[in-house]
Amino acid sequence: MxxxxxxxxxxxxxxxxxxKAYLLRYQRPSVSTNTSPTFLSLSAGVCVLGCAAxxxxxxxxxxxxxxxxxxxxxxxxxxxxxxxxVQLLRxxxxxxLPPAVLTTVFGGWFMLAxxxxxxxxxxxxxxxxxxxTVMSTFGLYLVVAAVSTGRA
Length: 152
Description:
6 helices; mainly alpha; 72% helix
């Protein structure tokens, strides 16, 4: 007896699943899906204003010369990084990590500096520490946003 001849399947062959490479890669969501770009811009702008306030307050209230000089020079340097953060945010739509970190560090210095210098005065201490707190808070928010988007 003869063995049966294998028959070809009737109908079309099932198609092999198509592997789409773009589905296999993980892509981080853009910052616009996680965070409002308006709030990011507002945060960067608040850092610039806080830094400017830290420069002006010791001069306006007549703090000691050493404190005024230190905060004013630090504030001008911090203003460079805060403004650079605004510039990069406008260009790319995402915050940049280095200027955001430096803005946060300068905010921390403004909170600490009145405690380092003697005879600063109440208004100079309160104003500089408030400016530093605002800068550190919003600067740290920008740091977290930059880290979560993966842009450094």
